[in-house]
Amino acid sequence: MAGRIDDEYQRLKAHTHKRVVDKLDEDGVEVGGANRQRVEDAITRAVHQYIAEQRIPISNQDLNQLARDMIDEVMGFGPLEPLLRDARINDILVNGPQSVFIEIAGVLQKAAIRFIDNDHIVRVVRRILAPLGRRLDEASPMVDARLPDGSRVNAIIPPLALDGPSVSIRKFNRHHLSAEDLIQSGSMTEECLQVLVAAVQGRRNILVSGGTGTGKTTMLNLISQYIPKNERILTIEDSAELVLSHPHVVRLETRPANTEGRGRITARELVINALRMRPDRIIVGEVRSGEIIELLQAMNTGHEGSMSTIHANGTREALVRIETLLAVSGYDASEKAIARLIGSALDMIIQLVRLPDGRRMISEVVALDPREDDPYHMEYVYRGHYDR
């Protein structure tokens, strides 16, 4: 029965869960405050007792699996628990009760688990959110939160999600790939590494560009390791994913609005505040909105060596994306002035790609060398070799 996702097993889980909860309540077992082993033993006994009372034919192996599932259901996050424990899994995507996908090594695949129904998904998500003081209901049908371990969870339920609750979990990984790991896997060459190290230590302003899941944060983590130890770094992120092994780092994180729609702190506000905190370098996890204005101006006015990432599928597309962000954020200037601002602020763009087999690679590294007639003039300092 391990890994079974059929309807019969889901019904058995639902009935068993109700019985286990009732039994724990009858016996006065406090799930949150008691010794974990004592609670697990109580759950296991309740499962065995229920199966015996109902005379349900089940093998010992299947009975043990059912008990394990009930422990996850009562004490953890239900069907998500084994996925959260699996260090190989980077992302968990729930698209309704019977459609759960995971990403391992850059490849999406369907997971051999399912939920009982929509209510089951919502119940598990609420359990995840409870310690965070966040809510998910008809009045607040969308939530984005960071778990205590740094993982990020986003959930959206009907009526906004038409086909049932949708949950996305980006697991936080404290073990980031080293330069040697990326060279060994063919993601970049030793020659490329030397180019990046020289750029960081030479205080070049760097933008890491790539599509979804190309490893932008991993690359930002990697190159940040080469910042001299005597410099003060301020990081600004929507969700804290950067892990810098540096002695002088101040980490700032945006804050969403509360249930009354107040208290939101944006990345743009944090960048403005960071400039008053005497940073040597500013690292913005990803530019998505108005923070691009202050970041570019900071890069142009004494904060050389700053870095960020952007969602774009090519180096030229990254520059166009910045232009678009400036325009929608109300930056009032001519096209020529905008191009000059961008061209003079950025020194280097690292472009990442993800291949169909899940491998992530540096496709090219370009240095911006603005000319009077071409503010985006590029010199290619590295080009990766791979089969498209």
UniProtKB/TrEMBL annotation:
Pfam families tied to this protein: T2SSE (PF00437)
UniProt domain Bacterial type II secretion system protein E: residue ranges: 76-354
Matching InterPro entries: P-loop_NTPase, T2SS/T4SS_dom, T4SS_GSP_E_ATPase
One MF annotation (Gene Ontology) recorded for this entry: ATP hydrolysis activity
SUPFAM superfamilies xref list: P-loop containing nucleoside triphosphate hydrolases
Family label: Belongs to the GSP E family.
Protein known as: Type II secretion system protein
Organism in which the protein naturally occurs: Alcanivorax dieselolei (strain DSM 16502 / CGMCC 1.3690 / MCCC 1A00001 / B-5)
Lineage: Bacteria, Pseudomonadati, Pseudomonadota, Gammaproteobacteria, Oceanospirillales
